[in-house]
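Re: that chain you flagged

S.,

Sorry for the slow reply, it's been a week of failed gels. I finally had a moment to sit down with the sequence you sent. For the record, here it is as I used it:
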Amino acid sequence: MGCGASKSISTVGPQELESQRDAEDYSLEPVTLQITNIDEFDAVFTRLCALLNRLVELNNGVHCAVAEAKAAFAPVSGGFQLDVDFVPSADTVLLSMRTQRGQVPDVDGVQQLAQSASVKQADADVEEARRTLHAFLREQAAGQSVRIGRDGLLAWTPQASPADVPPPEQVKHFNECLSKLRSLLGNQTVVIITVVPAVAAGIPTVGVTIQKAAMQGVGFRTATKPASLLDIYSTQQGASIKAAEAFLADRAQKLAHRTKGLDMEWEVTTSYTVMHANEIENEDIQDQVDQLLKGVNLALFRLLNGCASSARAASLTNAVVEIVRPVLEAIKAKHANTHLSHRMRQMVSVRPEVEFQNEEEGVPPSFDFQVNIQLKPEAQVPTFPNCLPDLNLALLHAVEGVKQSIADALNELPAISVETDDLLERAKEFYELCPDAAAQMGFSMMDAVRCSKATGYNLKTLYETQDLFLGFGENIKRVADELADSSRAVAELLEATLPTRLEQVTEGDDEGAETPMSRGLSLVSAGQTPRDQWNNLSSGEHIPGAEFGIQPPSEQAIKNKDVPEAGGDAFDVGSGADQVYASA
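Prediction finished late last night. Pasting the structure tokens below so you have them in one place:
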């Protein structure tokens, strides 16, 4: 299929991107309350604000841990990686692709174009020229810039110089490379240039490079290089990656303009979140900078999602699969062509397990996940996880970080819930008490009105914060679902890599009669169904986790599983926080 044939894929521009919440974004916004100037009221509101924002921090900690796991998944799966740094603000030249009808070229067509050696080289040359041009522009004084000329190429606009001054070599080289690529692609595919102008040249701001590397065996990669235009559009994530890149460039320029004249100290976390380490004295400027950072981080999160999923969906299920894969591949490589090939399946036991323990007798709830890989000596493979390549080991540590973030959050949740409930009981009376309290404080009529409005605003905000508990529950459910589903995916990987060969199993083998199901690739103990495990955790009077909205799997859900013993059922989070806010 040629690149001219396209699918109708809807795209969004940078401005629309900010108003749309990413489907994978489970972060929560902090709670802000107003001052009433009545000591009793403010003490309660301040404590409630602290409790709820602690819940936000715990939830967002899980969200960031998942983002770190996605970042670790990208190099293992062959996806694009992000290189985020702070660079001097300068004009940013962006490239995108469309068909003549203005649609995103279909992936098969782009991949077909990239098979041409001349097109592939021209594409790489354009990206290299663009990087060189960016480096040159970051060294220029304010006013030295580029724009799009009438010919669809870049034009140089130097400050206080004659209009006929020839453009720098870097601009000429970029135009030459782009013209060659356009010529090779033909009329059916259009390469579009966009220039995001610098509004505060030279001020440090966020810069990003999308990197690509080739796999060199399971868990090993060659050195990375910047991903080219065709590289990006050769994936299903191409359009979303490019939209996020444009959004980031726009917000990065605005961030540079807002922080001009400020002594900013920037940090980039391992989950690709940008933060400033210093306090800004002016609260209005602080709020503006934080709002711009919110846009920058939204763009980075979208870029991370798109890049990490460019080769394979960046789910925790697939992350666990990539942790297990090199172990099975190592066994296969060592024994596939030997007299032990019929015993390869028996050399390894893989049991991904999710464990949840409800709160009991003052002991907070607990959450755990283990990959559980056991290798027999005859496998002649180092023990797990020592057998993992560095990239896969880093991915294992990232998944363990997700598990720990959930365990930490659940550990604090009961105390937050109880104290929030108690304080809301007190706070719900404040609106009626406000007039008398204001009179006792000697407030003027205007101050009394302000106090009443602040109290009403706070109570309304607190009532709506039940969504924080629900959002937290949905976040835990999502993560638990993906981790639980890894047992099914690992069972499929095991069968594909080390297939069962029943015809070669002898009666004397103590494990020879085991099937993939009986080998324990499940979330439950031997001889138990998922329902049995939940019942064992139950006290008989309530369902484990019910107060946190976590429900057991239904019998029908268990029956509908493709691999019952290997799947298990994940958590179902409902509105368990309702009881906390019933009195609000």
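What I noticed first: The first strand starts at residue 81 and ends at 88.

Talk soon,
D.
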